[in-house]
Amino acid sequence: MNNKPPEFLVVIPARLGSTRLPRKPLADIGGKPMVIRVAERAQQSNAQSVVVATDSPEIQAACDQYRIECLLTSPDHPTGTDRIAEVAQLLKLPADTLVVNVQGDEPLIPPELINQVAQTLADNTACAISTVAVPITDTSEITNPNVVKVVLNKAGEALYFSRASIPFVRDPESAKDVMHLRHLGIYAYRADFLEAYTRLNPAPPEQAEALEQLRALWNGYRIAVHTASEAPPAGVDTAEDLERVRQILAR
């Protein structure tokens, strides 16, 4: 295992259209747009560069104001991964470049978590993707379809992701050592996988679960999973989330 921190770049996909919270990336948090707060967090990681990928000239103008690198991408991308793949193409990234996807609604993301997902991919050379999971401590989350679960093999690679309660515990007595894991939506990719991803058709389990990472598993790509000890602060989905983050940063 290489002890030297890997080189990687962070790409933050930021789309202006959001159903639950309109114009979310530009929402003000302590005098700065949320996407700028996210980018500044990412700049505190070991990333060689941080790029915002957007379909919005307004978001691009906000990034220009704060001297954050920003690329204008197609408005037609169905997923954030497709948007990041366009960035990899525009930047002509070498095949083995590590690219970390940081969601544009994570203004409290710990920089160390960004480093860790990159390190996990660097350490697992046979994997195309890495991501993060945390042990579930609130048992109500196991049956909550809004909480995505992941089951790993003994090498720490993903076997399956689901909104269902996996693994299903048939006999609690014989399953004392089972740990349910919640998946967190941060990823690192190799640039050559991103190029291949754009040519993959949506997979049946992906469409059933509405989880795009299942497209990679369906097509035989391996996903390394870092199990973190605790979950980072939650991102922003709703107006209530936005107010909570504003209060945290105001302190």
Beta-strand content estimate: 15-25%
Largest sheet: 9 strands, mixed
Q: Would you count the extended β strands for me?
A: 11
How far is the N terminus from the C terminus?
40 Å
Low-confidence spans: none
Rounded radius of gyration (Å): 18 Å
Going by helix content, strand content and strand pairing, the class is: alpha/beta
Which helices and strands occur, and which strands form pairs?
Blueprint: E1 8-14, E2 28-29, E3 32-33, H1 34-43, E4 49-54, H2 57-65, E5 69-72, H3 80-90, E6 98-101, H4 111-123, E7 129-135, E8 149-152, E9 158-162, E10 181-190, H5 191-197, H6 204-209, H7 213-218, E11 223-227, H8 239-250
Parallel strand pairs: 1-4, 1-6, 4-5, 7-11
Antiparallel strand pairs: 2-3, 6-10, 7-10, 8-9, 8-10
Helix pairs in contact: 3-5
Note the main attributes of this structure.
251 residues, alpha/beta, nine-stranded mixed beta sheet, two-stranded antiparallel ribbon, 11 strands, 29% helix
Explain what the structure shows.
By secondary structure, this protein is α/β, with parallel strands linked by helices. It is 29% helix and 22% strand. The protein contains eight helices and eleven strands. It has helices at 34-43, 57-65, 80-90, 111-123, 191-197, 204-209, 213-218, 239-250, and strands at 8-14, 28-29, 32-33, 49-54, 69-72, 98-101, 129-135, 149-152, 158-162, 181-190, 223-227. The strands form two sheets. Strands 1, 4, 5, 6, 7, 8, 9, 10 and 11 form a nine-stranded mixed sheet that branches. A two-stranded antiparallel ribbon has the order 2-3. Strand 2 (28-29) and strand 3 form a beta hairpin. Helix 3 (80-90) packs across helix 5 (191-197). The longest helix is centred in the middle third of the chain and has 13 residues, at 111-123. It is globular and about 60 Å long. The N and C termini lie far apart (40 Å). The model has no long low-confidence stretch (mean pLDDT 93).
